Every structure is written in structure tokens, then in C-alpha cells.
Write the C-alpha cells for this entry.
Amino acid sequence: MAALLPAEWIKNWEKGGKSEFVQLCRALSENKNHDVGFRDIQQALYELAYHVVRGNLKHDQASNVLGDVIEFREDMPSILADVFCILDIETSCLEEKNKRDHFTQLVLACLYLVSDTVLKERLDPETLESLGLIKQSQQFNQKSVKIKTKLFYKQQKFNLLREENEGYAKLIAELGQDLSGNITSDLILENIKSLIGCFNLDPNRVLDIILEVYECRPEYDDFFVPLIESYMYMCEPQTLCHILGFKFKFYQDPSGETPSSLYRVAAVLLQHNLIDLEDLYVHLLPGDNAIIEEHKREIVEAKQIVRKLTMVVLSSEKTEEKEKEKEKEEEKTEKPPDNQKLGLLEALLKIGDWHHAQSIMDQMPPFYSTSHKAIALALCQLVHVTIEPLYRRVGVPKGAKGSPISSLPNKRAPKQAESFEELRKEVFNMLCYLGPHLSHDPILFAKVVRLGKAFMKEFQSDGSKQEDKEKMETLFSCLLSITDQVLLPSLSLMDCNACMSEELWGMFKTFPYQYRYRLYGQWKNETYNSHPLLVKVKAQTIDRAKYIMKRLTKENVKPSGRQIGKLSHSNPTILFDYILSQIQKYDNLITPVVDSLKYLTSLNYDVLAYCIIEALANPEKERMKHDDTTISSWLQSLASFCGAVFRKYPIELAGLLQYVANQLKAGKSFDLLILKEVVQKMAGIEITEEMTMEQLEAMTGGEQLKAEGGYFGQIRNTKKSSQRLKDALLDHDLALPLCLLMAQQRNGVVFQEGGEKHLKLVGKLYDQCHDTLVQFGGFLASNLSTEDYIKRVPSIDVLCNEFHTPHDAAFFLSRPMYAHHISSKYDELKKAEKGNKQQHKVHKYITSCELVMAPVHEAVISLHLPKVWDDISPQFYATFWSLTMYDLAVPHSSYDREVNKLKVQMKAIDDNQEMPPNKKKKEKERCTALQDKLLEEEKKQLEHVQRVLQRLKLEKDNWLLAKSTKNETITKFLQLCIFPRCIFSAIDAVYCAHFVELVHQQKTPNFSTLLCYDRVFSDIIYTVASCTENEASRYGRFLCCMLETVTRWHSDRVIYEKECGNYPGFLTILRATGFDGGNKADQLDYENFRHVVHKWHYKLTKASVHCLETGEYTHIRNILIVLTKILPWYPKVLNLGQALERRVHKICQEEKEKRPDLYALAMGYSGQLKSRKPFMIPENEFHHKDPPARNAVPAAVQNGPGGAGMPTSLTINTVRLEEGTAEETDKLKEKSQGVVKVINKTVNATPKVTTSNGNSASNSKIIKEKDDKEKSGKEKDKEKKDKTPAATPEMKALGKDGKDKPKEERANKDEKAREIKEKTPKSDKEKEKVKKEEKASKEEKSKTVVTIIESKSTAEKEREKEPSRERDLAKEMKSKENAKGGEKVPVAGSLKSPVPRSETSESEREQKRRKVDTHSSPSHSSTVKDNLNELKDSSAKHYINHTTPTLSKSKEREVEKKDLDKSRERSREREKKDEKDRKDRKRDHSNSEREPPQDSTKRRKEENGTTGSSKHSKSESPSDSPRLNEKEKEKNKSKSSGKEKGDSIKADKMEKSSSGSKKESRHDKEKTEKKEKRDSAGGKEEKKHHKSSDKHR
């Protein structure tokens, strides 16, 4: 440290050093920083003194300057003494004596500055002696030791003998006297003082006696506390604490028990701050460590108890265990040592010293102190007192008197709460320390809950300021914390107190369910682990629950229910968790458990709802079984339990519904199972695919009929439960969101959710999602009021475009809205005008429909491309989607059935002797009321249906616009209306079939019923394969209803004539739009219709067999479902039935081990099919077969006018096509590819049995025998061939090559094609056929010889290719094709050319000539069926249609002359026009050469081959020979390689060789045909025909 005194100052001390030093000291003493100044002055004085010791400065100089400096600070003498003390030590150590002398001189010089007492304190005794301040240092030392001992170590001993007992007696008399008068503590204190003085009393003992007396007279707080307080002024502060501590110590023996009076005295003194808690706390036992150890031990013990309860103990061990436990219990019951800390705490609480009590509690583990009942009760009492004024103001229930609680006399007790804010500050804290032990005081529990209720009322009533709102929010969160930490745990520890549970629910029901569920979650998963007592309670509850559940059966539901109820009042979360775990394992427990829950409180029901949701959301549970194809059984059980329990008991649904909605938002649809069950049970709306037709029929009636006859279970009393469900949905705005989420999730199941899942499961989930949507939508429609529904469901365009709802679902949701709208508008109009005539009513109804539906028609336009509306009008689309079965037909039989049931019931009631009369009367009244309701409903529906039909009659003319073609119109109708809706629900399936029939009956323009039915029955493979299980079932229902209609028409000529005879839907010539000339000749006659129906049956068989043979799970399952549904109407024909039976039998064998569900389906169907066998009929009974003919009916006529003269020909005429490009046809081709494939298959499948034709009976017989042998061997091959889609029809190939081949070849092939078609299929019906054919062959043996010879010669000629006749024949064929094709070739190319009529007329003549020859074709089936094949094809190649005329000889001849004349005239007029057109066409044709062949030859194929078959599709059982298939493949090759002659000839040869021995018979036929044609027609015509056909080429 730098020296403060420079050496210069010392040298020049007298000159300037002295004054410099004084200035320095002054400056240092004025320094504001006290410490720094003190240290520096010390240093300055030390340096000065040191200079004196070293002899640099004289001692008198130093003493003088110190005399000047001493006044600068008060403590300057003390500082100087310190400096001397240091120097004393230093100099005593030095050897130089002079320095010591200098020091002594300096001290002596300064004695007047420092008092000698200070020096005596600080300097060494030897130094003091040398200074002369003391005489002898030794004596001085002895004396100081004595004084110190006396001061610090010697205890004061009062001479007890000197104390006089009389003094203590007088003291006790003073303290024990009656204090009621005007005696004050001050007065007594003076007396005590005098007693102490007079009798030499020990003041500490006096204090002890005062405390003893105070203990005995606790009521005199106001006297003793001031007395002790004033007495303490005379004592040291610690004395009182020590005396109390000594008193507590006295009772700390193991046997000692501290009296409560002592605790109370200590508590009062603490409250008045006369002692400190910290000082007293150390005197109390046990120590804090011991308390913590004890707490830990309790927790461990509790866990051991739990482990014991959960362990499985064998009965022999049980008794031993119990004995050991008893011993332990006895040990435990030995008295625990006294806990003085808890005793003091209790006393503090009793006098209301919350502040000190709280600090004691904080020293202990949580809830340790309150786990002692006395303390818990003391704290409860304190809370009672604190909440009293607020409780009296807001908490007391109306009408209750209550017993008021007086406040504590103590002014220092906590302030009583007057408001909720004060309640929060004071009471909530106390409650938190109480925790679960509030259970000791149920009355306080109820009070707290009631205050909570009152607060919630205030909290939920609006109209408070912002600041208040914030305060209220804080209060609310505090209330939730109290509920979580105090109320619920306390309820767990209460002994089954149902009243408390209900009281708590009174408050809970004011919380939103989110808060409630959060609280239950904490209660269930956290609370029970927080305290040893709760741990034990949880284990005991589970143990008891196990006991009850083991014994629960249907028989003992009531007693078990009571036990469950008892257990649930206190610990519902634990109990329900266990019960639900059992239900998930054993679903047979569901019914008894649901019944046994009737003794629960409202709170428990709410907890149950939470537990269910928690169980559903359990992340550890797998939602599907291990095979990944079905939903887990635990989920199914829970869902079923949900439905039952929510229906039976008043449980709030909001949480569950929100959970389902959240799962859907997250893209998970498993949990829809729950919604499905809840709606089914609560609203009585069942969704099942297993409905009988009777139930379905009942479902098309009014609400009453639905309830009575539509459901499996008679669902009664759903009014309340459905109202609850409705309210929950509306209150939480979940109705529409759930609908939309389900509608969107349907596709989500397939494209998002179903990524990794098994196809079967995806189908299940899709069905579940769809069914739930239908069920839920049905619930909303029937339960929501019109206003509610309309307010919530947006318009159709918003639903589809903004919410992306699929159209079918969107209309499903909107449909009830339209019905509501229309009926309300109708009612308004009825009220406005009172006209009662039926006409007026209908008119008003139609007006109201127009008003409501007009905006819908507008909205609908945005749903599809503008092109769609060219064919069907928005009005038709909206009408189709907005009507239901209720609007189309009245289920009279259903109404009658239900009314008859009621009558039977009433009769049974009358006959029942045991029933008491009043019950009889009630039941009868109920039945009568129901009957009246049903009859009223039927009448109402009848009027409604009549109005709807009137409306449809007026609308129908604008329905189908058919701006492109009728074919396209049917496509759009099926695509956008029928197919989406027929798989939507079972009733919609029935509706679709009815609607088609209705459109037919209404004679709707541009609607071809034939086409529509044909498209529905042909190629069902694709539709079936793309369905889910339930959709397949609905699709089956739809087909069943369609078949029912067709079968009805097929069954009776009278019905057919009446319902179809002259209906536009059965026109066989489709003219240009707008012209439906109902010429009787254009109608399909009854026999031909029967052929068509047979063809449809055949197509169904073909598709079914294909599906069954794919081996694909979905194909097989779906087709079996569909077949089961259509059993009543199909199969009707024996051989088709046998074919099916064989395939199904095969499936049964193959799938038995592999896929048991398919096996079960197949077995089920197989059994039902066998039972239908007696009702099947042979083919000739199904459709009439003519005697064998020589050839099949020829080609079809394409153009309208030409075809007009041909009666009963099924001519399907293309509408004149609008302009289009080759590209369009391309696209169309692509679209129809799928359909084409299947058609090809059918062509392939034409079997190889030659018909017993007039000329070739013997041949056919030989072939038949051959085939019979082959049949069994080739059966399997044929089936396989059938399946392969690669096999394209040979005709297609022929046609493609046809253009460039020599005429002979083409003619040849055409005829061959016809031959192939002619051969009837070899299939199951063969046996019957064989018999017939044998007869036929016998009759015609004579003809046979000729035929064979002819056939040989024709065959030879064919080989030599005899030019003249072949050329003629080829020309004939070409002309036929022209006739058929008219504009066909160009159409394919350019879609522009007009109709070449001249050709047509000539071709017609040619055809007629041919018809006359072939009038005796074996059956019209060939024609008509092929015709419909063509229809079918036309549907595939959208713009192409054909005709197949079939005429008997007699008719032909009658009509022929007229027709010829007409056609000649027409042809002349048109020849000129056509010159130009032909040139155009050639150009177009060459441009689009690649495209036409497929289309045109396809047509040609069908016209020449398909049409020209006799009985060809009798039962084209899928059985073509392998060789035929090869042939077709070969042809495909030739097709692809272009239209070169070489290729085509090769193909031709291949075909010849493959057809083998059957050639002769074919040539034979060809030859006879040619001859006949030549005979019947004039040469001129033929030449003309050649010319025209050449031109056309």
C-alpha cells in the first residue's frame, strides 16, 4: 500500500509537514465513504506513530499533532488505541530496546487523548504495567479470568431455602382469583413483581407458574396474553420459548402424552407473536426426517397391498396370508408415538392461526398432516367458518334452513369470505392443503360444491366488465384446480355417498364436456397415484369389481347392479375401466352390464361416457384383427355397448360424437361403427343388407309403416332417445359436419386410408362408412324439423362443388329438404285458395314443385359437363334424384299385412283370459290407434303418389333431349342416374328399377326401354367386380327388380301387349329424334321379346360363369351375392341353371379349405339353387322355337325408310349423326373397349352343334353325337377359353380384312360366320335338345341324302372357286352389307354422310328375297338375340345401330310387292343425290381407313353372322372348342397386319381347315340359299344390286 506520509513531510515537519498531515486527516475524516475513511485514518496514524518508534520524529511532536487531529472524528481515540495495540505487539517482538522505549514514551505522551479503560482493554498486561496503569500484571490476569467465569459459566443459584413458599401460594392465589371484575393484567403484574421482590421468587419459575395457570384457564386469553406479554419485558426474549420447550420435552417419553392445553397455550403465544415458530419447532418431536421416512414407508406399504390384491393366490395360501396380515394389523394398532408437531398444528388450526399452521404443513410431505383425521377436521372447521357469510348468501339451496356457524372469537383468525374473490384468496388455499381428506367432512364438501355451482351461474351470465371477466376467468381456472385436487379425490375416499355424487354433478353439468373429461382423465390416470390411501382404494375397488363381474349374469342383474352402483358412487373411473376391459373381451356381458347400470348417478353416467371414449381411443389397441381383413372384436363390442348404454340411460353424447368427427377429420373411419350403433339403438333406424322384400316394401311407406314392418326388431320407445341424440347434434353443430365428413371419407377409405389394408377390409370400411351415412342421413331427415334441416343443409351445388360431396350423397342429404319445401309450398297454396277439386289440388302441387325445383334445376347444371345436358335435361336429372319410392308407389300389400297383424293381435287380446280387463282395454286401444294411423297414412300416400304421377306426366316430354343419339341418352341415364343410385341403398335399388319401368310406362319420348334393359343385363361383369359386398347386394336387388318386370312381361302375351305392345320404348327402329312414329310394324312382337329375354338370361349366365372362374375373391363373392339376390327370377332356363350349378359346385370344392367365407356363400347359393330346380323349364318352353329352318335370318337393315316396310323386324336405326371427326369415333371406340371384350367372348362362345336344318339333319346328328363325346372332355377347356378376353370374335377379323379380300372369299366368310352363329351352343340344355333334334332328323332323313350330295358338290365348287356363282353370291353379300351398312362405312370414317337410299332400297329387295327363302328359320331367337347383341354393340360403339329383320314366309310375300314398288320409287329419287355423297364418302373413307374396319365389320359381323344364326344363342354356354379359339387368334393376327389380301386369304384358309368336317353342311346351306334367292328374286334386281354395291365399294 502506498505510504500516506511522504518522507519529506517528516524531514520538514515543523515547516510544512505538520500542517500537511493535519489537512490529510481532515480530508480523510470528511470522506463520505465511512469504511474507506476509517481504514485510511488508521493507516495515517499508524505511519505517524511508526516514525516516532523508529526515531524519525519526536514523541512530543507526534502527541501535539494527535491532539489537533483527535477532534476530527468521534471514534478517533478508539482508532488510536487500535494503532497502539498493533505497535505494542510489533515492538514487543523487536530486539532493539530503543524502539520499545520510543513506543512507551509515545503512549505516555498520549494518555490524555485515550482513556485508560480503553487502553486496559486493548494493550498487553505487561505494557500496562510498564505504563503504570496497573500495579501487577499477574493479579490483573487472575481477576479477569474470575470475572469471565462469573459472567459466562457460573449459573445463578437461588437459595431455595431463602425463597418462601408463601410467595408461591400468594402468586397462585393472585393468578387463580376470579378475573371477571375490573382486574387488569397490569394490576396483577404489579402484584407479581412485589411478590417476587418480597419473597425472593425465581422470575423463571414465576413465568412457568403463569403458563401453568393459563393452561388451566384457557378461556381467559384476553387476561393472560397481555400479562405474559408485559412480563416478558423483564425477561430475555428466549426465556419463554425455553420454558415451553422444556414443558414439551417433559412429555417426550415413549409413554408420555402431551396435553392439548399445552398445545393450545403454545398456539396462542405463537399467534400473538410472543414466540417464534422456528425457535419452538426445534423443541418438538418427531424430527422432520422421521416424518419423511414414515411417509415413504406408508407409500411402500400401500403398493404392497396393491400387489397382494392383484396377485392370484391359491386358496390354501389364502388362509395363511390372512393370518399373517392379522398379526401385522395387531402390531400396527400399538399406539404410535406422540407427534407434537401435529398436535401444535391442530391447536393452531382450532384457534384460526392459518399463517403458522401453513408454515408447519409446508415442512411436511404433501397431505401428510391432513391424513390425520383430527387435523383434517380442524382445517375443515376453519374452512366452514371462513366461507360462512358467502355460503349463506349464495350457496344455501332454496327452502333449506341450514345451521349457521359462529365466527371465531379470535381477531387474528382469517377474514371471512364475503365474495368469490375473497374465497379464492383465502379458502382455496386451505382446500388445497386438505386435498383428498375433505372426505372427512361431507357437509363441507357439499358447501364447496354449492359455492362452485353459484359461481358457475354467475360466470355464465354475461354482462360483466372486461376486468371482472378476467377475474372470473382466473376464478374459474382455480375452481377447476380445486375440483381436480380436492373434490374428486375426496369423493374417491368417501364411503359410497350417492348424494355427494349428485351434488357434484350439479356443478359439473355447468362445465363444458371438454373440461369435465379433462378432469375425469386426471382423476383416473393421475390422482390415484398421488397418495397412499388412494393407491389402496384403487386396488380395493378393482378387487371388488372383479368379484362382482365374475358373478354377473342375466339372472342376478338387480343385486349385482346394486353392488356396481354402490361401488361407482366413489370410484367410477376405476370401476368402469375394469368393466369395459371385460366387455371388450366377452361380448356376452354387454346385455347384463347395461341392465345393471341402472343404479348409477348422473355423474357416473358422464364418467362412463368418458371412459368409453378413452377405451376407444386407446393407442395400444389394434383396430383390426391379425388377419387384417376384419375390424377387431373389442371395437365391435364397445360399439355395441355404446349403442345400448346411450339409448337406455341419459348420458351426454356430445363427447362421443365429437370424437367420431375428429377421427373422421383425421381420415380414420373405423370408429364410424360407434356412430352406426348409437343411431341404430337410439333412433331405431336399422341399416342391414339382409332385409326381406316385405320389409323393403314396408320401408317405401310412411313413417308408421316403416316402424311397424320395416325393421327386424320392433323398436319401441325411441322417442326420448332420438330426441336426445338430435339435441346433442344440434347443440354442438355436428349434424352436417358428420354427414359431410362421412360422404368425403367414403372415397378416403379407398384412396387414403386403405393404402396398406387388405381389400376385404377396405370394402368393409367403405360399406360401414356408406351405411352409416345412409343411416345418419335417414335419422336427420326423420327427426329434424323442416326449419332445422333447411337451415343446416346447403344447396346441392354448394354441397358438391364447395364441400366436394359425392353427387349421390349430396342428393341423399338434400332430398328430404325438397320434399319438405314442396309440401310446405303446397300447403300454403292450398290455404290461399279453398278450391277442393282434385284438378285444382294437382295443379297447385305441380306449381309448388316448379317453384321449389326450378333453382335446383339451375344448380344441377354445374355438376356435369355441358355435353351431358344434350341428352338428358337437368329437370329429368333433378327429378330422378329428388324422388323416392314413397313418391312412386303405394305399398298396399304392406299396409294390408300390418293392419291384418293388428287385427290378429286384437283377436288374441280378446281371447286372452288371463289379461286383466284394464290392460286389455289399453292394448286394444293401442292396436286400434295404430290401425287408424296406418290406414290414414296409406290414404295420404295414395293421394301423394297420384299427384306425383300427374306431375311426371306433364314433365316427361322435356326429359330426354337425345341430341346425339338415343343410345347415348341411355348411356348417360345409366351412368349418371341408375348405376350410382342403385347401389346407394336397398330402397334406392328398388327405386331405380321402378323408375325405369315408370319412364317406360309414361311413354317418354326418346327413351328406348329395350336398349335400357339390354344394357343393364349385358356385361354385368365390370359392374359386379367394382362393387363392395353391400353394394353387390344392392345391385343384386336392382337386377332382381328389373328381372321381375321383364319376367312379368315374358310370362303372358296379354300382359306384354298391354304394357309394352305399342309403347315407344319397344320400337325396334330408332328414328331421328323427335319422330317416334308408332308404326305397329316397328314394334317388337311378343315372341321376339321372349327370344330377347332368353338372350339376356344367357348373358347373365355368361357373366356369372366368367366371374366364378376368375379365382378373384371380389369377383366370386360379389357374383354369388348378386346371384342369391336374383334367385326368384333367374335362372329360369334349365340348361343355364345346370351350367351355373356346375361352376358353383366347383367353387365349393376349391374354396372349402382356402377361403371359408366364399365357401359358405357358394354352399348357401348352391342349396337355394337346387331348391329352385323344380321351377326351371326347358328352353323350348321359355321361348317358342319354330320348326327347323334352312338358314338364319339375314342381315339387318340400317336405314329408317328402308326398314319401315318390314314388320316385326327388330331394326335399330341410327339417328342421323351430327358432324364429328374421326377422332371422336376413336375415343368412342376406346370407351367401349371393355364392353366389346365381353361381346367378343359371347361370340367366341358360340358352340359347335349344327342345328337340325332342313337340309342337313343327318349331318347335324352326326356332329351332335361327336360333340356329345367331346363334351365331357372339353368342358374345362371351353370354360377357360371363355374367360380369356384375348379371344376376339372371328367376325371382327373377317370384317377388318373384308374390304380388300376378293369378293368370293368375303362372301364365303360371311356365310361361314353365319354358319358358326347358327350352330346352337352346346351347354347344359343339350340333353333336351338332343331329343328334339333326333326327332327332327328322323323326319327329315329323306332330305338329308340330297343335302349331302349338294353339300359335296358345293364344297368341290368352292375349292375350284367356280367364278360365276361365287361372284354372284359375293355381290349379293356385298349388297346386303350395303343395305345394312347404308352409310355405315362412311359413318365410321367421317360421321357426316347422308343416307344412300338407292342402295338401301335395292339391298332391301335383296333382303326380302332372302327372307322369303329363309322364312322357316328355327327360331326367332337368333334374330332377336343377335339383334340385341347388336344393340349391345351399338351401345359400345355409341353411334352404330343395326337391324335384324325376321319374317315368316307368308308375311313376306304379302308385304313384298308393295314394298318393292315403294323402294324402287325412293331409290330413283335418291340416286342422283347419292352420286355426290358417294364421292365424298370415298374420300372420307380413304382418309380414315384404319378406323372403319373395326366398326363396320363389327356391324357386318353382327348383321351377317350374328343375325344370321338360327337358335344360335339358345344357351351359348361358354364352350367353344380350342380350335375355334386358335382360329380367332390367327384372325387377330391377320387383322393387325393390315388389310392385305395375302393375310386375309391365309386367315381364310386357316378358318377352312379349322372348321373341318363341318364345311360340307355349311356349303350345303349356302347352296340351297343361293338357289332359293335366285328363284325368288328377279334377275334385273340382282344386276341392279350388283351395280349399286359395286358403286358403294
Notes: The two ends are 133 Å apart (CA to CA).
